[in-house]
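Dear colleagues,

As part of the handover before I leave the project, I'm documenting each prediction I ran so the next person doesn't have to rerun anything. This entry is a single chain, and its sequence is reproduced below.
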Amino acid sequence: MTPKVDIYSDLQALIAAALETIVTRIHTAINERQTCSIALSGGSTPQPLYAALAQADLPWDRIQIFWGDERYVPATDPDSNYGMAKRVWLDLVPIPAANIHPMPTHFDRPQLAAEEYERQTLAQFGLETGSIPVFDIILLGIGDDGHTASLFPHTAALSVADRLITVGDKDGQPRITFTFPLLNRARCAIFLVAGASKQPALAEIFAPTGDIHTYPSRGVQPQGELLWLLDAAAGERLAPR
């Protein structure tokens, strides 16, 4: 899928566009399939988007919320992706608790958590082991190093092709993450990217040639839409001259 890149004047404009994009695709999914599955990202950039979604009038009982990656910390930890989305969005809307599917982080070994989340995800989609769910929307960001989800440069998770969920490694700290096979089945993958610090990574991600082991975000090539929503600070090198 050829990526579609849109650059907005500032973070506020970026979040407004992301909100419209996501709400439209939620309604499309529900109209076509009676439900919408969304995998969330963490970090600071999507936080105002989640706050905006908390004000949206949506059929919450038809929306299933998952996470594309998670730090291996309790939900009460300030670094928890689930905890952030819960505070600024999910606690504020009438979504059924059964529709919220956080990644488990209570197992002694992160690998057990990854295996459990894979089982839970397959069960929610009504699929057998060996199948790959198709998410309606997967939200993603990038790090200054070009990582996405918890797929970090030159780590073993980048090569996992036989699992939907695996253990990522951030400087020796384990994380749970979607793998490329799951990311790339999405109907719509949306990158939200803000800030001038992302310019060097974006230049490499959009270069004609490159290596996903060095810039993992290059490996996201979904079967459906691939949308890059950038603010002007991040997208300066990609903007038409």
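The longest helix spans residues 11-33. The mean pLDDT is 97.

All the best with the project,
I.
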